[in-house]
Design a protein that fits this description.
single chain, 106 residues, alpha+beta, five-stranded mixed β-sheet, globular
Length: 106
């Protein structure tokens, strides 16, 4: 059966409620175990989490090929550690999806 992640309003709401801003220091141990995945700023973190939950391979493959989703690199982890970065995080077991806070324009 084909799932329709864009219509899963309940899961979207649940993931949205459970998404939080966390300091990189709290995510570092998960990075060490290889479970932290970076999501590009142009993507919606909650939408990506819903699509991963639904195993939407087409979208995930497309985003990975475009460099919009990737495991956090050692260099990125070091930059976030050095800057005491705070990231938006969403858990989609076994992964923790992270996204840098988008800057607001005035």
């Amino acid at each position: 059966m084909q799932t329709k992640p864009e219509q899963d309003i309940e899961l979207h709401a649940k993931i949205n409620r459970e998404t939080a801003r966390l300091p990189w220091g709290e995510l570092a141990k998960h990075f060490a175990s290889g479970t932290v995945v970076w999501i590009a700023d142009e993507l919606d973190l909650v939408d990506v989490a819903v699509r991963i939950s639904h195993d939407d391979k087409a979208s995930i493959t497309q985003w990975m090929a475009a460099g919009q989703i990737a495991k956090v690199s050692d260099e990125q982890a070091q930059r976030w550690n050095d800057s005491n970065a705070s990231l938006w995080a969403s858990v989609v077991s076994p992964f923790i999806l992270v996204q840098q806070e988008k800057r607001k324009t005035h």
